[in-house]
Amino acid sequence: MRALAPAAVVLVVALSAGWGGAVDASGSTPPNPGHGGYLWSISCGAPEDCAAGGQVNGTRDEAWVISETQGRWGKAIVMPGIAKLSTGGIAQLNSVSCAAAGACAAGGFYNDAHGREQAFVAERTNGHWRNAIKVPGMATLNTGGEALVFSVSCAAPGDCAAGGFYRDKANLQAYVVDEKNGHWGRAIEVPGMATLNSGAAVVNSISCAAVGDCAAGGSYADGSGNAHAFVVSETNGTWGAAIEVPGTDLDAGGSAEVQTISCGAAGDCSAGGAYADDNQFHDSSVFLVSETNGTWGNAIVTPGLPGDGLSCAAAGECAAVGGGFVVSETNGIWGDPVPVTGAESISCAVARRCAVGGSYVAGAGTEQASVANNKANGSWSKPITVRGLPKLSPYGWRGVYAISCATAGSCAAGGDDCCTKGRQVFVVSEKNGVWGRAVLVALPRT
User: Fold this and answer.
1) Which end of the chain is more exposed for a tag (fewer CB within 10 A), N or C?
2) How confident is the model at residue 16 (pLDDT cuts 50, 70, 90)?
3) Which uninterrupted H or E stretch holds 106?
């Protein structure tokens, strides 16, 4: 999960120029004074049809969701059904994925009446969210009372996959669960993990390029407590055995993990992560690894790129971002990192046409939100200040933490803006290559 750094401001690096100022969705004052939350995920299934969600902080910390339909963001609501599940008073939406207009899935966690952490999934059908449900099979797997969904991905309406971790009597275990034709199956331990994992395993990210063809990645611990990065692929609805990310250089410091994964086509995916060469993670100790025709190659080191986000528009056509750098893959070959101020999250709807979001600290103590453009020739424009956001908060601790593009020139982004009176959440949409005005989301009271 991301953590908001102090003195961070919004940055969105977009496909095209045309940013308006920000506007408070409720009128002239923040809609939830003294009461805020976080936006953790956003996804667009079609142009001007997206969904976003996270956690709202109140008397109860609940999972919330908001939907965009025909270019208009609706009212943020507590995830339907979650209040009945989260009798322990805490719930959070971690991930949302939309495969088409009005068709999405989401996942996260909640605490039950006994304080046990449980994983949930929920479905948006025909533009309406159904009640969240406990991930099927967790009653048997999660005997240690600690489970969550970290990542969800949908290849088609009603055909999705999710992953995260659960705790058995001894260890944290990585799992995956598939949805087919609108029905979630039973969660299973990641195949092969029983042999690999001796301490703690987790799926950090999952991506589905086609129905029944997905990939996931994360980390596991060996008997000495060293963490290793793994990937696992699903083909024709069957998950294969997890493997350690190829590339022995990742083992030197005893700590490695896949942080993000994206599939451009069935059997053609890329993953990014971090590893330690001296028992600590560093921004320079990062890697990318690609799958081609169902086979994972060796990891490559990408100095200076933390690998915060990754997006693949097609087989061999991806881009990764982090720490103010973007690196692109063209025809299966990764190029050199290119500096793009503050870039931390990315979405590519078309090869070499991406949108990037993030945050940065401006000079001389000022904090300004900005945007930049990924041009048709693949170059990046100079960041442009997003007008209006200072009116939302005089403090300027803000950032874009999630971005999604349905097509080139039609994207949505979201983040939060601290701290007028509690952390405020915002979303902003792009139409025909022009970004509109940011909307400060009125989070539901809990």
Assistant:
1) N
2) very low
3) strand 103-111
Average pLDDT for the chain: 84
**Residue 317 near residue 352, CB atoms below 8 Å:** yes
Q: Rounded CA gap, 57 and 303, in Å?
A: 37
pLDDT of residue 7: 28
Beta carbons within 8 Å of 295's beta carbon, 6+ residues apart:
none
Instruction: Decide if 54 contacts 434 (C-beta within 8 A).
Output: no
Separation between Cα atoms, residue 318 and residue 175, nearest integer Å: 26
Name the one residue in this structure whose structure tokens are 């970004």.
Answer: 435
How is residue 146 annotated by DSSP? B
Distance CA 420, CA 215 (A): 40
- For residue 190, the SS3 value is coil
Alpha-carbon distance values, 432 to 15, 130, 410, 436 (Å): 10, 31, 6, 10
* pLDDT given for residue 389 in this prediction: 57
Is residue 49 over pLDDT 50? yes
∠ Cα 30 35 36 (to 5°): 80
Q: Is the pLDDT of residue 365 over 50?
A: no
CB-CB contact of 308 with 321 (8 Å): yes
> Among residues 304, 302, 317, which one has the least CA distance to residue 348?
317
Check: CB of residue 329 under 8 Å from CB of residue 318.
yes
Alpha helices by DSSP H, listed for 249-392, are: none
Exposure of 142 in the CB half-sphere (CA atoms within 13 A): 25
pLDDT score, position 361: 65
Quickly list DSSP for 369-412.
-EEEEB-TTS-BPPPEEPTTGGGT-SS-EEEEEEEEEEETTEEE
pLDDT for the residue numbered 170: 87
pLDDT over threshold 70, residue 278: no
Q: Which residues are registered as beta bridge partners of 238?
A: 235
Report the predicted TM-score, pTM, of the whole model to 2 decimal places. Answer: 0.90
Rounded to the nearest angstrom, the gap between the alpha carbon of residue 275 and the centroid of all alpha carbons in its chain is 20
CA atoms within 13 A on the CB side of 165: 19
Residue 223 tokens read as 């008997």
Cα separation, 287 vs 160, whole angstroms: 27
Strands (E) located in 226-267: 227-235, 238-239, 243-244, 256-265
CA distance 18 to 431: 10
Which contiguous run of DSSP H or E holds residue 205? strand 202-210
Strand partners, 440: 24, 426
* Counts for the chain of helices (H) and strands (E), in that order: 3, 41
What single DSSP character describes residue 249? G
Q: Point out which residues pair with 176 in neighbouring strands.
A: 163, 188
Q: Which amino acid, one-letter code, is at 250? A: L
